[in-house]
Amino acid sequence: MHRRRFPAAGRWPHTARATLTLALAAALTAGLIQAHAQTAVPPAAQDPLTLRGAFEAAWARQPEALALATRRDAARAQAQAAQSWTPEPVAMELSTKTDRLNRNLGTREYEVGVAIPLWLPGERGRSQALADAEGRAVESRTTAAQLRIAAAVREAWWSWQRAHAELEAARGQLENVRRIAADVGKRLKAGDLARADQHQADAAVAAAEGAVAQADGALTVAQQHLRSLTAMPAVGLASAMPSQAEPEPPTPATATAEMDDHAELLALKDRAAVAEGAIALAATQSRASPELTIAATRDRGAYGESYNQTFTVGVRIPFGAGPRHDARVTTARAEAVELQAQMALERARLAGEREAARARADAARAQLAAAERRAGLALESRGFFDKSFRLGETDLPTRLRIESEAADAERQAARARIELAAAISAWRQALGLLPQ
Q: May I ask which residue range the UniProt record assigns to the signal sequence (predicted)?
């Protein structure tokens, strides 16, 4: 039996050692690439940006959103304070009396007591009602702030979508006129067309390139406006879903129910409820809170005498507040009157915006149907005249005019789709619905 004997590590040939080193390096590199491919997330797997995602990103940056948790904590603390046994914290009283500084006969007196503030009649219940109203006002104020942010995001979003559609239409027209110009160049070399036709085709290409540059600049401006609201990176905006329309708002049972659920009206109603609660509480607090005093006293008259123990129970009742109380009540009533008037004006404004938004959506829907019908006819005409131009039956000016009309029809159809989506979004905004 023969045994194979391998050379020691230091005796391997130079070529064999180099081959082994390269093999190990290749294996290690392949393993790292495979591990990275398993852990890395491809860009296509990321969720594309939507209108709702843009709104959530914009709302997360708002001061109202950042302070919401603190405001809720304050409302809960106020509700707990209204449910406590006393309107103010209990106070401890400590006092001592001595004649050490004058006669020094040994007179001593020590007193320990507590002062307990008392609720005025009806004050505790009205304080609880005011705390509940302020808690509801925090939530409705937050929803109203969300709706205002949603209006800004919706406007920026659809402006960006319009600019994106304009750029796509301009690029499509540029591609078509370049194809026509290339065809004209071939026919010029063949002697079928004159050099003037080539110049005319090149001029159409230059005009289309200018339109693309203008649309690209408008898209950049709209994109920067949207990014200023959402702080989204350019990559996220590039992956946004184009022209994603929101669902049409549901039809309410009555117009009154539709208006009563609006966030702006709910916020004003809750603020009015807070003002009414403040009026009721201020009317109750016609004076400062009375105090119940319980004290224990230990004293002696002179040296050698024993200490005596006494107990004191007293009530402290302040006088009426007078003009200060009247000022608080009058200020709260003025706030309530102002909010009631503002709510009436807001209701009228929202009713007008609701009807206008619905009419705008209906008009946009009819405009889209007409634009799509025109685009279909223009597309068929483009095919007819393109074939006729290739056969030499149509001149170049007519072909370029048909191409311009077809491009304009496609642009109008794309714009009409976005206008309908924007109109539905504005309709939802007028109804107080957040983006979806």
A: 1-37
